[in-house]
Write a structure and sequence with these properties.
homodimer; 190 residues; alpha/beta; five-stranded mixed sheet
């Protein structure tokens, strides 16, 4: 037996139907609307869990990359929406960190508070700001585990210069979690 | 602008020169020797950070997948050796969890204690056992950050049935960290 074929990671085909790549996003609410729209479409199209994320250039409000939960579609437990967005952004910029790349800073907007894995990745990613929709407890209520995240985990990131904003459009984000439950969506890490 | 090309994730070409895929591994020490050999070769070949990992079928001692740190090589901050090994194992088995797949259980052997991101991914991966070489403090001593990992983080995994073994061949694993330092290796998340 030899080594394996490369793993391919991509977003579903419908992404380009939903995303206007040329738009400028001027508020957390606008940015969050996109993240939630991604999470909703992922549920409606049956392409994954009820989570979406996007990375923006903080200064210009331009969209750099998006991600939707792809765990089941791509048989890969690491592919939470935040992870996909981070990978896509770094591939696009050709760098393993988004920290003050081209004199810009970057922010991650996610439809739900990040799990333990994603919180770690956020620290490594170099984004300077995180905007969250639904709370961790909203996802837990649905049966999704969030892993070893503690109040100190968030404090740890903040102490290293990562601003975290919570509960932006929480109701709209939580409605997508509820939609997933109603459709009998798989709780792949419960 | 349209959506992006898929991201390709693979191990370096030299992997098949180092790894005997047909061998059975009968002890933690044997398994750790492979993880450390991967970490060392990654440094010597200049293909990444000083970290290697492998996933084994616990019952048969067969090798399922390996990973080496690929953060800089592939411009992707998420590609710690443990993450690559988990992705490769799940791609090979065609499933987003390794939990009691084909009535087998799986274990991850890593040349260094996992960071916050990898600890989270380990929980999602479905491996039931983790064997670590160097301690977190050994990596920190080199300048590598480990992120928001607390004693409760390990307790959290243990409470969910993930056994964690520490310090197997710590000296040999730490020697590779030292080798990386001597070669002036990049601390990509310092």
């Amino acid at each position: 037996m030899s080594s394996f074929s490369p793993i391919h990671i991509d977003n579903p085909d419908w992404i380009d139907l939903l995303v206007d790549w040329d738009r400028h996003y001027v508020s957390d609410e606008n940015k969050m609307r996109l993240a939630i729209a991604l999470s909703r479409e992922n549920v409606l199209r049956g392409t994954g869990g009820p989570f979406g994320a996007a990375i923006f250039d903080t200064h210009f409000g331009t969209l750099v990359a998006v991600g939707v939960n792809s765990v089941v579609r791509l048989n890969n437990c690491t592919l939470h929406s935040e992870m996909v967005a981070i990978m896509m952004a770094q591939a696009r910029l050709g760098c393993f960190t988004l920290r003050e790349k081209n004199a810009s800073t970057y922010e991650l907007v996610t439809s739900c508070e990040p799990c333990a894995m994603c919180l770690g990745a956020i620290l490594w990613s170099g984004v300077r700001r995180v905007v969250c929709g639904a709370y961790r407890d909203d996802a837990r209520h649905l049966g999704f585990e969030e892993g070893p995240v503690f109040p100190e985990s968030h404090a740890y990131l903040k102490a290293r210069g990562v601003e975290i904003v919570y509960g932006v459009q929480r109701d709209a984000a939580t409605a997508v979690l509820e939609l997933y439950r109603l459709k009998g969506g798989l709780i792949y890490n419960g």
